[in-house]
Amino acid sequence: TARPVRWTREHPPGGGPLPALAAGLALTGRPLVAVLAADLPFLDPGTLPALVAGLPPEADGALLVDADGRDQPLTAVYRADALRTALAELGPDTLAGRPLRALLGRLRLRRLPGPAALDCDTWPDIAAARARIGHHGVVLEEWIAAVKTELGVELDVDTTALLDAARDAAHGVARPAAPLTTFLIGYAAGRTGLAPAEAAARISALAEDWARERAEPEPGARS
């Protein structure tokens, strides 16, 4: 992983969400814990802060609900002590194979709507998520994240500035100039420390000048 992570596993293996939750709680002393599934394609950096901000003092947790109003307890923030108490009430030897909803009735919860609540349990769910991702242009962001992970780089990418520079190079110079230009912008950023957004802006201006100069008639040429 990109950051150090402590790994654990439920007991018994394959015992379901409640033993997994108990195993995770045993490794933390934090007052709040986030509980997240692995099939949430629209989870974003703003989801957890929104859940924390939406957790009132009198509640044991805040969770998202989907478009149909169904609870998504694996997209939630809980008070750790409240979870421990509820798990103890259920009995540590009776957790395996039980659904997470067995725990929810013992907690005071704040329910919040949010697009991140959409999970993918079936192939139709995956198809719907892919269609939505394509519609909102999230595919590009996911691809950039995957490329950064593959190359082992951590940096903010101003996608708009780079795409603008690629567009200007393609239109003002030639289509093959677009990928070569973005490569050179990245190379310059790595070698000289030049901010990619600044480099992209300079290249966009250069491409516009390039196109304008070549559009002007040469001295002595007939119009």
TrEMBL record:
Signal sequence span per UniProt? none
Per UniProt, residues of the DUF6457 domain are: 137-214
Keywords of the record:
Nucleotidyltransferase, Transferase
Entry annotated with the keyword Transferase: yes
Enumerate the GO terms in the molecular function aspect: nucleotidyltransferase activity
What's the protein called, per UniProt? Answer: Molybdenum cofactor guanylyltransferase
Q: Does the keyword Lipid metabolism apply?
A: no
Q: Where is the MobA-like NTP transferase domain?
A: 3-104
Pfam families attached to this UniProt entry: DUF6457 (PF20058), NTP_transf_3 (PF12804)
InterPro entries assigned to the protein according to its UniProt record, in alphabetical order: DUF6457 (IPR045598), MobA-like_NTP_Trfase (IPR025877), Nucleotide-diphossugar_trans (IPR029044)
